[in-house]
Predict the structure of Protein CHAPERONE-LIKE PROTEIN OF POR1, chloroplastic.
Amino acid sequence: MASLLLSNPIISSSFLGKHLSCNANLRKSVPCALAFRSPRCAAADSTYGGNIPKYPRSSVWDPYKRLGITTDASEEEVWSSRNFLLDQYGGHERSAESIEAAFETILMKSFQNRKKTKINLKTRLKKKVEDSPPWVQNLLAFVELPETIIILRRLFLFTFMAFWSVMNSAEGGPAFQVALSLFACIYFLNDKSKSIARASVIGFGSLVVGWICGSCVVPMIPTAILQPTWTLELLTSLVVYIFLFLGCTFLK
């Protein structure tokens, strides 16, 4: 009897209202077939393409086709396509990298094409000058293109002289303004050539040529569009200012 109780003990509990039995031979636990995934792994799966849209043309080799534009698209169209695609697929890392790579490739090609165009234009102009007649080459040898800031400064000076002459037309002629303009022209030419004789010849030559051209052109202007105080001398001086500006700016 004792051996039977020891082999299969039964514990009675009035509190639970039922018998609790324990088998000495414990059964081996069977592993559960259900598998549980941690939230961290699920988040990682969604990050690498679970719910985030992937750009379908990421593997397209042609950068224009990858962005969905033509080869002659403008810079604004390239930027617009890039921004639109990043808004749609920017959450996917590989898609965003593919879009940015295509965008940078197109910008680099555009920069290189513009640089080649400038170089080709200079080469063509130089070749045309070399193939031109000798008298044209000799004439162009006296011409130079200064910096933009120099052109703007001298243009402002002679424009001021012309405006001063027009505003002072009712009181007197523009002789004083023309003399100041001639002096400025000779000064600028001497500063470039370091020869006062050469500067004086070019300065007086610009004055004479401008006065002759003004005397020929001004009488052709209808008097109906001119102010009563604008004399022939005043209008001729305006043409002289133009020739003085061209002489001291673009001639060597």
